[in-house]
Amino acid sequence: MKWITLLLVLMTALPAVASELDTDLLEIQHRWAQIRYQMEEDKREQAFEKLAEQASELVAAYPDRAEPLIWEGIVLSTWAGAKGGFGALGLVKDARKSLEKAMQIDPAALEGSAYTSLGSLYYQVPGWPLGFGNDDKARELLIKALEINPDGMDPNYFYGDFLIDQGKEERARPYLERVLVAPARPERPVADAGRREEAKAKLMTLED
After folding, report:
1. Pick from 85, 23, 20, 83: which is nearest to 52 by CA?
2. Under CATH, which architecture does the 2-145 domain have?
3. The whole model's pTM is what?
């Protein structure tokens, strides 16, 4: 009978653990969106640095889960964008490591967000010898992200942005337009609004 009691205890504890992780992830998501879309540009670098520490702590607390690693990668990469210059290269390399590790654990976690985030790094980071940028790898990862989450706001945005980067503006249009009609994420209103505005801005450049 003792094993039955132990099993019941474990079954009761599992939802609480999941709920705690979800809450912690949501806190990082909300803070990331506030920094990215609502904070003054000159304050973002320091704020992302602090958020990266929080994400790292979550990774340490849940070493076998892909979701904290994905958000660590996202935070590190956007911190790199805020930092700029050669100092950002170390951050994007760390972001790549986090995202690759997340894909090893669960490639479909967060609707394939690791593919989206890593793909965006591959076309935005300089190529060898400075960085690891690779357009072919970016295309492969971003297409995989769309296969997992074809209606998602982020995979459509970044694939559209990638196509613009490749000089294929008209091919980019339908992907950016999908961002505007993509299903809303009720738990992420700030991020959704910010991403839609970015897509609108990209579409406006296609009109010029």
Report:
1. 83
2. Alpha Horseshoe (1.25)
3. 0.89
